[in-house]
Design the sequence.
């Protein structure tokens, strides 16, 4: 999807009005905001040029208002891969040298989780405008430290939560806040895969360097790598933050190939102040159900991944004569020999859903790197806009901050086998999404 | 071949039998409106159904009448 299509999508959904009041960070996507930066270029440095870094580079090369002037990675093959796109860019193997480079205005940090906070804070203090991949930090304290650092400096900081910029999520949330599915009574998130989540390692000493996701020394596993994306859904739909979380995590299947110690099977329940639960479940040894994100309301359900709306309200029954005929038919067809069943399996309704918008691009969630049309490109464009203007969009960081904090809190709950609440010291000003 | 003559009296009688069926079909429609609490304008909008039902009823009555006629004929021969 190019910018023109993106703007047209939002135009179709009345983006300029209602959606902007719900999602103020989309301001940079308006025509007016784009004109503001026309003819200007952002000078960008990329720290971490592995798979996710390259994914961003493939979007950056399509953007006329971006000049990638510096690349940094301490793993040479990754640096060389990135340099093929930007042969003129300066190359570094220490991110601090890149931060010293005065020609760099903004940095994109796509490194392992345990480095996010340190690198983000260093970059902000070096006067750079920063985009860091999710999750925001490796610990609750680090996330707060990053948040406070940005606040203190008044700098630009984006976190890689691309659903914030995905048209189908925005349209769905708009409809939910308009009351399409009634009161929200449940939120279901799940992400199933059937693979070992490993990257190929050229030599054994690089195992932890490349497969950092599998080791708790560097990553919080499924909660920070996958759940973090989906945990925003509940807060957006409910207009409030969860009050408590409980969870269970285990290493069930992938134990033979390596010495990984992050869970391959997790379930977490987040409870909101009104008693509504949001669940997250991930198993990476069965992929039948794939990725799913569903908002359940008293009048229907919205599936965010497929952008479909399913109503719970009964279809119109027809005229009195129609109903009479149907009743006679069912009387004739019913088996009078046996007594009627007192119980029947309540299988899912088969009612076909309705798409909530045309031309929906569904992302399977199978790729560990990213997918086209998942909002990543639009998120990056908004960051580039912020690099040029120096303006931090409203709420964008707070949404990412809480997604990270609740992913980390759930991971903690699993390890401590406890029901946990977010300590007051981690609470930052948060104005939930509400219709104005 | 013998001509079948449908006299005016027969036509009148058959028309009244169908009219009775039509009234019964309307009663069924009203009953279903009451039972299923559907709008009263269905008295008019469901006229198609009512006409079809009246023809079905007329056919049913015809079958009964033919059967009765044949039975009476057999009895009279004895």
Sequence:
């Amino acid at each position: 999807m190019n910018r023109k299509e993106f703007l047209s999508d939002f135009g179709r959904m009345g983006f300029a009005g209602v959606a902007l009041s719900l999602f103020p960070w989309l301001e940079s996507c308006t025509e007016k905001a784009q004109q503001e930066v026309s003819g200007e270029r952002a000078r960008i440095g990329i720290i971490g040029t592995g798979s996710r870094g390259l994914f961003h580079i493939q979007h950056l090369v399509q953007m006329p208002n971006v000049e990638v002037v510096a690349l940094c990675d301490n793993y040479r093959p990754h640096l060389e891969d990135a340099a093929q796109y930007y042969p003129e860019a300066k190359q570094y193997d220490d991110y601090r040298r890149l931060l010293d480079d005065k020609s760099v205005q903004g940095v994109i940090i796509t490194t392992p989780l345990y480095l996010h906070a340190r690198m983000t804070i260093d970059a902000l203090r070096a006067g750079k405008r920063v985009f860091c991949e999710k999750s925001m930090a490796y610990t609750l304290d680090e996330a707060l430290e990053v948040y406070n650092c940005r606040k203190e400096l008044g700098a630009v900081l984006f976190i890689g939560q691309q659903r914030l910029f995905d048209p189908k999520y925005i349209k769905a949330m708009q409809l939910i806040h308009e009351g399409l599915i009634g009161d929200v009574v449940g939120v279901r998130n799940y992400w199933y895969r059937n693979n070992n989540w490993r990257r190929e390692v050229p030599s054994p000493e690089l195992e932890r360097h490349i497969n950092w996701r599998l080791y708790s020394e560097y990553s919080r596993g499924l909660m920070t790598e996958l759940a973090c994306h989906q945990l925003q859904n509940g807060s957006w739909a409910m207009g409030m933050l969860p009050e408590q979380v409980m969870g269970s995590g285990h290493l069930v299947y992938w134990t033979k190939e390596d010495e990984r110690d992050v869970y391959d099977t997790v379930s977490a329940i987040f409870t909101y102040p009104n008693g509504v639960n949001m669940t997250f479940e991930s198993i990476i040894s069965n992929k039948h159900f794939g990725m799913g994100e569903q908002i359940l309301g008293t009048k229907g359900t919205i599936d965010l991944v497929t952008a479909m709306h399913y109503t719970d309200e009964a279809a119109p029954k027809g005229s009195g004569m129609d109903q009479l005929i149907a009743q006679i038919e069912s009387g004739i067809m019913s088996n009078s020999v046996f007594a009627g069943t007192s119980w029947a399996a309540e299988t899912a309704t088969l009612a076909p859903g309705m798409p909530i918008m045309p031309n929906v691009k569904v992302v399977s969630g199978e790729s560990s790197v990213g997918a086209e049309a998942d909002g990543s490109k639009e998120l990056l464009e908004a960051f580039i806009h912020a690099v040029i203007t120096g303006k931090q969009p409203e709420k964008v960081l707070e949404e990412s901050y809480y997604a990270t904090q609740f992913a980390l809190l759930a991971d903690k709950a699993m390890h401590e086998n406890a029901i946990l609440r977010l300590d007051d010291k981690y609470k930052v000003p948060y104005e939930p999404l509400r219709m104005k | 071949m013998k001509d079948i003559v449908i006299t005016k009296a027969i036509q009148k009688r058959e028309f009244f039998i169908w009219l009775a069926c039509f009234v019964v079909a309307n009663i069924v429609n009203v009953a279903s409106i009451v039972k299923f609490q559907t709008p009263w304008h269905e008295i008019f909008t469901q006229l198609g159904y009512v006409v079809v039902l009246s023809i079905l009823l007329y056919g049913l009555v015809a079958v009964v009448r033919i059967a009765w006629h044949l039975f009476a004929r057999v009895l009279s021969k004895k």
Summary: The mean pLDDT of chain B is 93. Chain B touches chain A through 13 residues (CB under 8 Å). Residues 8-77 of chain B form one domain. Chain B has three helices and no strands.
